[in-house]
């Protein structure tokens, strides 16, 4: 019975950050998310990955994944803990990748817990953390542990090229007027180390934030000096996420 309940829970919300719940929302909100997706694509267009292999972590179904980014690799290994991610990612992206001769392998695995093993398994790949680090605190349910693990990633990734898009802050907004101004609100070239509380206030003001907002404990994913792009995401009605995207070439501390 316990096993069955675990299976149902996994299927429904996959540790709280994916599952059917997420897929139904992502599918129905896909039009509302278009401008945010274009900004992510624009960010990735400026990245020069120096590898032909990509390890994609938190791939889900690739609802927000620009095909133009995937097309830059010869082999992609997509990882997610969600049991629905592999079939849905293959359904959404598999055919186009096959047509371009790009090899795709989808894996169900906790890629954060097994990162050292993954790095050994894919010694020549670059890595893209696809909007999962901001949810780590909700999976781990221990803020100190979550923040430490997020901060430690850069040590683990020394010598590799990698990037991430993740939630910085999220919360309710007074209205949705800001959602029509995603491009003008997006900020490029923000030094990850310079993100202070004054700037955070400006971000919240831009989207008419109200009530209590969540800090996703991701402000130190990147080392100081890393240029990042901040993108608003109209996640659902009257609810905004500020995403941070960044890329690090051959990272050295
Ligand atoms: C917000 S969704 C990502 C959306 C996805 N990038 C897209 O474009 O559809 C976060 C995903 O990360 C996955 N995830 C969370 N923690 C993970 C972990 N430790 N290892 C692998 N996947 C994880 C969740 O199952 C979920 O599918």
State the gist of this model:
The chain contains ten helices and nine strands. It is an alpha/beta fold and 253 residues long.
Question: How is this structure best described in words?
Answer:
With 253 residues, this protein is α/β, with parallel strands linked by helices. It has a single domain (2-248), classed as 3-Layer(aba) Sandwich (Rossmann fold). The protein has 10 helices and 9 strands. The chain has helices at residues 2-13, 19-28, 34-45, 67-70, 85-99, 115-121, 136-140, 143-156, 182-185, 197-206; strands at residues 53-57, 75-80, 103-108, 125-130, 162-172, 187-191, 214-215, 227-236, 239-248. Strands 1, 2, 3, 4, 5, 6, 7, 8 and 9 form a 9-stranded mixed beta sheet that branches. A hairpin with a 2-residue loop joins strand 8 and strand 9 (239-248). Helix 1 runs parallel beside helix 2. Residues 14, 17-18, 22, 26, 57-65, 79-82, 85, 110-112, 130-132, 135, 139 line the site of S-adenosylmethionine (SAM).
Q: What's the helix-strand series?
A: HHHEHEHEHEHHEHEHEEE
Q: Give the low-confidence spans.
A: none
The largest pleated sheet is described as: 9 strands, mixed
Main structural class: alpha/beta
The unique ligands bound to this protein are: S-adenosylmethionine
- Round the mean pLDDT to the nearest integer and report it: 93
Alpha-carbon distance between the termini? Answer: 48 Å
> Over the alpha carbons, how many angstroms does the gyration radius reach?
17 Å
Number of domains: 1
Here the CATH topology equals: Rossmann fold
């Amino acid at each position: 019975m316990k096993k069955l309940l675990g299976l149902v829970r996994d299927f429904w919300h996959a540790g709280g950050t994916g599952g059917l719940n997420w897929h139904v929302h992502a599918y129905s909100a896909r039009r509302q998310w278009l401008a945010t997706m274009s900004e992510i694509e624009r960010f990735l267009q400026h990245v020069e990955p120096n590898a032909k292999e990509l390890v994609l972590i938190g791939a889900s179904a690739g609802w927000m994944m620009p095909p133009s980014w995937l097309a830059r690799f010869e082999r992609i290994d997509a990882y997610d803990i969600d049991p629905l991610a592999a079939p849905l990612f293959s359904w959404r992206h598999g055919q186009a990748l096959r047509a371009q001769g790009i090899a795709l392998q989808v894996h169900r695995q906790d890629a954060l817990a097994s990162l050292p093993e993954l790095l050994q398994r894919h010694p020549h790949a670059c890595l893209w953390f696809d909007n999962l680090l901001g949810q780590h605190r909700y999976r781990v349910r221990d803020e100190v542990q979550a923040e430490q693990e997020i901060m430690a990633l850069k040590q683990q990734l020394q010598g590799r090229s990698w990037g991430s898009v993740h939630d910085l802050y999220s919360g309710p907004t007074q209205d949705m007027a800001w959602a029509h101004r995603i491009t003008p609100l997006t900020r490029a070239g923000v030094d990850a180390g310079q993100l202070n509380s004054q700037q955070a206030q400006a971000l919240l003001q831009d989207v008419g934030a109200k009530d209590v907002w969540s800090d996703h404990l991701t402000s130190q994913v990147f080392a100081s000096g890393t240029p990042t792009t901040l993108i608003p995401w109209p996640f659902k009605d009257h609810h905004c996420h500020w995403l941070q995207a960044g890329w690090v070439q051959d990272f050295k501390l």
